[in-house]
Design goal:
two-stranded antiparallel sheet; single chain; mainly alpha
Amino acid sequence: FARMPAPILHRLELTTMLRTVVQLYQAQAQNQVTFQANEQSVWIMGDEQLLTRIVSNLILNGLQSGEEQG
């Protein structure tokens, strides 16, 4: 596994970060990636760059798994 850098915690709005990551994968025509959330903000302490990487990897793993099952 890749060694992750030490997290730098900041207050961030989780829903916005998740929507941004999902939009990257929605642009690929062959993939259907959706995200539904309440309009209410969800604030957390976290490293946005690391969380973005983690969520992106989870989505990519799911898409690749779906391709294998065909």
